[in-house]
């Protein structure tokens, strides 16, 4: 059999590339290497700014030329690093060699020995991962989540008064409104989004085992922890002063657990909207030229929500693995985190793909208000809750001699349909005050929605 030309193994780099491409700027191998170059370059500048080891501070032109190494990082650097790593068998060392090589090109050989000065690979890696994950979350993933929340909020406001039969345990239950039910998801997602926005992105910069031993050996009169903190915080990150060879990854565990939480809420949204489509509460807006089924021309399948559901399960599983693995490192360092962290982009990719599907799906549904009204009108028995609660109030107020209102309504309604006329006749025969009786007789399933519409305003 003739072998195929080179193909992406992951659908994120093939079929779904367009939806997740923005993440590749940060969470790909090239994105990681660009960040590593950035950290190496900025550390060089930090050392020369302080005239350490006789190095003169660089002027702004030299700094800009040096910073161009990561600002203009591209195909040439990617290929150079691939060739060098094939020899070094060490990715961070290859980055160090790249910076040294470019220093020579820029005429900055005099500071070459300050490249990667007193650093262990994890100083560069922890800082680079913190930068790339922070930028991917803040510039790509969170904005897409915010779009979904905004779409949900818009739908919630639009349908705040659309009364619908609730389905607790899948059974007819006290009515709500579609707007309030969608607002619940927006509310939940907003809460988790705020937690993610307030999270830490930490890095360490303290040498081979987190003790600054080599730094002090080279220059004992420098406050290296203060310099390291200033450097890391200058990059917009938090500084972790107490570590082993690696930054402990706890901030990553916290982040991935929160994103997994968001994934779970989104999964709940996908399955609920799918169910609403299934029972006819939402109709799907046909997309010109699209095929729902290869053999049944009438069908419009809810594929956006099904795709989202599956991708959220993959993403959640990967984030759970990341959290479980990254929280532990044997003694002062083991390498299990290296391979694990290379899948951060895959986990975010499946989550971003799900968000894209949900956003599209929410824009392709229309509320079938006739179906909502028909369902309400077929389930007058849901007013049993209101009736027995009113009766209890009347008993407490001394206006009724009924002994067990719950059992009374249970005998009337449990397991059977009760029409409006039958329920009205039942209410008229109740031993309760006339005002209470009038309130109940005026009630319908469509008006028994409490504060559902007002609650949407909480968004």
The best one-word shape is elongated
Could you tell me the CATH topology label of the largest domain. Answer: Fumarase C, Chain A, domain 2
Q: Any low-confidence stretches, pLDDT <50, length ≥5?
A: none
The overall pLDDT average reads: 94
Strand order of the largest sheet: 1-2
CATH superfamily of the largest domain: Fumarase/aspartase (Central domain)
| Pattern of helices and strands | HHHHHHEEHEHHEHEHHHEHHHHHH
Alpha-carbon distance between the termini?
A: 59 Å
Give me the Rg, rounded: 31 Å
Percentage of β-strand residues: 5-15%
What does this structure look like?
Keywords: Lyase, Purine biosynthesis. One of its GO terms (molecular function) is lyase activity. It comes from Microbacterium deminutum. The chain is mainly alpha-helical and 459 residues long. The protein folds into three domains: 20-119, Fumarase/aspartase (N-terminal domain) (Fumarase C, Chain B, domain 1, Orthogonal Bundle), CATH 1.10.275; 122-368, Fumarase/aspartase (Central domain) (Fumarase C, Chain A, domain 2, Up-down Bundle), CATH 1.20.200; 379-458, Ribonucleotide Reductase Protein R1, domain 1, CATH 1.10.40. The protein is built from 19 helices and six strands. It has helices at 17-27, 29-49, 60-71, 75-88, 91-105, 121-158, 178-197, 213-218, 224-234, 250-278, 303-326, 336-341, 344-362, 369-377, 384-396, 405-413, 420-428, 434-442, 452-455, and strands at 163-168, 171-177, 202-203, 238-239, 282-284, 365-367. A two-stranded antiparallel ribbon has the order 1-2. The protein has a two-stranded parallel ribbon with strand order 3-4. The longest helix is centred in the first third of the chain and has 38 residues, at 121-158. The mean pLDDT is 94.
């Amino acid at each position: 059999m003739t072998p195929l030309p080179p193909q992406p193994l992951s659908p994120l780099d093939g079929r779904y590339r367009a939806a997740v491409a923005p993440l590749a700027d940060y969470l790909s191998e090239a994105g990681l290497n660009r960040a590593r170059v950035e950290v190496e370059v900025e550390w060089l500048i930090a050392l020369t700014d302080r005239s350490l080891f006789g190095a003169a501070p660089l002027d702004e032109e030299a700094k800009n030329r040096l910073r161009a190494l990561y600002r203009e990082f591209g195909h040439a650097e990617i290929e150079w690093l691939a060739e060098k790593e094939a020899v070094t068998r060490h990715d961070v060392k290859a980055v160090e060699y790249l910076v040294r090589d470019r220093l020579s090109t820029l005429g900055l050989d005099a500071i070459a020995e300050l490249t990667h000065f007193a650093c262990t690979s994890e100083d560069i890696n922890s800082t680079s991962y913190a930068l790339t994950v922070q930028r991917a979350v803040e510039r790509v993933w969170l904005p897409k989540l915010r779009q979904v929340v905004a779409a949900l909020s818009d739908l919630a406001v639009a349908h705040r008064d659309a009364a619908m039969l609730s389905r607790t345990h899948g059974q007819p239950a006290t009515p709500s409104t579609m707007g309030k039910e969608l607002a619940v998801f927006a509310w939940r997602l907003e809460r988790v989004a705020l937690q993610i926005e307030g999270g830490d992105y930490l890095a360490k910069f303290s040498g081979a085992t987190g003790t600054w031993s080599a730094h002090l050996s080279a220059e004992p009169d420098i406050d290296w922890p203060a310099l390291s903190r200033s450097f890391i915080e200058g990059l917009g990150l938090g500084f972790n002063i107490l570590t082993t060879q690696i930054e402990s990854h706890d901030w990553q565990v916290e982040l991935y657990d929160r994103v997994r939480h968001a994934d779970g809420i989104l999964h709940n949204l996908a399955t609920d909207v799918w169910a609403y489509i299934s029972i006819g509460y939402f109709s799907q807006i046909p997309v010109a030229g699209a095929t729902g089924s290869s053999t049944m021309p009438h069908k419009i399948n809810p594929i956006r929500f099904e795709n989202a559901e599956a991708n959220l399960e993959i993403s959640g599983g990967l984030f759970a693995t990341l959290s479980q693995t990254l929280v532990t490192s044997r003694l002062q360092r083991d390498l299990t985190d290296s391979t694990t962290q290379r899948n951060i982009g895959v986990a975010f990719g499946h989550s971003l793909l799900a968000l894209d599907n949900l956003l599209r799906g929410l824009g392709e549904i229309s509320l079938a208000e006739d179906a909502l009204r028909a369902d309400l009108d077929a389930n007058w028995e849901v007013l049993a809750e209101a009736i027995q609660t009113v009766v209890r109030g009347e008993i407490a107020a001394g206006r009724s001699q009924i002994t067990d209102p719950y059992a009374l309504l249970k005998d009337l309604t449990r397991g059977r349909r009760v029409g409006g006329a039958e329920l009205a006749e039942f209410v008229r025969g109740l031993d309760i005050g006339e005002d209470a009786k009038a309130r109940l007789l005026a009630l319908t399933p469509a008006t028994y929605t409490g504060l559902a519409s007002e609650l949407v305003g909480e968004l």
